[in-house]
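Retro notes
What went well: the complex prediction finally ran end to end.
Inputs used:
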Amino acid sequence: MMLHPSILALCFSSLLISLMTLYAAGYGIVILRRWDIGSGSELQLALERRTYLISTIVSYFLAFQLVSLFLFIHTADSICHLFVGAMCAVGTLTANSFGYPTLALKLVTFILAGLWLILNHVDNLGYDYPLIRSKYLLLLIAAPFVLAESVLQVIYFLKLNPDIITSCCGALFSKGDRTLASEVVALPSAPMKIAFYGSMLATLAAGAWFRLRGTGACLFGALSGVSFPVALAALVSFISLYIYEMPSHHCPFCLLQAEYGYVGYPLYALLLAATVTGVGVGLLHPFRHRASLATALPSVQRKLAALSLLCYLLFTLLASWKIAFSSFSLEGY
Amino acid sequence: MISARDITKVFNAGRPSEYTALRGVSLDVRLKETTVLKGPSGSGKTTLLALLGCMARPTSGRIFLDEREITSLPERFLTEVRRSTFGFVFQQFNLIKGISALENVMAPAYPTGEKYSLLRKRALETLEMFDLGKRAEAKVEWLSGGEAQRVAIARALINRPQVIIADEPTAHLDTRLAHEFIAIMARLKSEGTTIILASHDPIVYDSPLADRVVEMRDGQVVHEGEPA
């Protein structure tokens, strides 16, 4: 199992990302404690020289961290045929108790990595390292998650046993159990539709307002953060039903399969991109008064907001298109 | 004003070959004047020139250009300061062989994105200033020592720098060419260009061109003032 090319790639890349993140986090502790741009000390100048190199290397590693979420899901989906009872990534992830925690941590690290890349990009736009403490603080926060994810991922893959009988998505994403997945599945469709379209509308309106007036960045960031779980719940609760055209098939992973046109990949990519860039707009807002970012930051925020709006809009349109042109109807369901 | 404050530069720090080129140097270079760094080989002149010209970073200490601290600047900002503020004339001229004098002069301006035709026109005008218009298309290896020197100066001027930095500019020149170089620098100074020279050639530091002479030894400034 471990010799599967994708698993090797995931484990090797996670190892490298963890090592680099840990090294950079250690360096970040020195930055947080000793950074003093007004000083001409040997240590300060050494920190200035090294931060650019370290940040650049970390940014490449964290960019791969973004990709690794999709590689992980794709790998889980592509090896499901090795497990008795598995029909999609759900079966692979439930083959042992480390699958879902790994996926959850990959989601968390995806968002943290995305936000760090935004902070790093903006920091590089200023001549006086304006966000250096903030970005290394975020890296310190992300480091334990990255490390835990790498460890869990290796344990998960090492403990995969093809002889065991695992569950299919129909068993996990069904009503009646007391699991989180079952709770989400059991959510009534009409209120979920209202919640989904309401949150999307509110987020799009807040984003458009920010683009037009330049105010409300924090509101837009907060709404982006709220829309993410709402959209995920909506995917499981009712959007998936229209895509599968089955009243009881709620799996969020079968969307990634060829028979459904791999629609899950654009849906998840759009949602994650929209969330990270939207939250990024709010995250950057407290730094708008830094002199060295006075001209660059509003421009970056506007671009991020535009990207977020575009992704949310495309996500909503794609989901709505699947709902509108599905031969399945939820009325009375 | 270019101000260096408590500058130290250590090469190969922590290795057996560790070498301290500058030790706590503080210096003020006034703009629109000529400052000559004088001293024997190994005294730190070239290292200090490189630091003042943003070609290297100190191990400790800060450098200010018109009150703006420049040693902490991230590389891309420092590159912009270097490109727009300083023009360099190297001891060996460092012209790129295989291409013409004109292309050599244009080379430092390529990253600015200036329109090629305008840049070419400006480079030709700069070469004309030094009576090199007819040699513009000649490859640099065909140029005489004096012509190569003037091409190097023209190249240093292409981005209209505020400051010209020259390291041992007369080291490979005979007396006539050395005086010619001094004359060119005097002309640039009269036009408002700041000139910083490192030299142990009396033709340079005893010339009327020098407003201030900074004497260095063992990585330290031992004396600075007006030329004797």
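What we learned: Residues 270 and 288 of chain A are 27 Å apart (CA to CA).
What to try next: split runs per interface for comparison.
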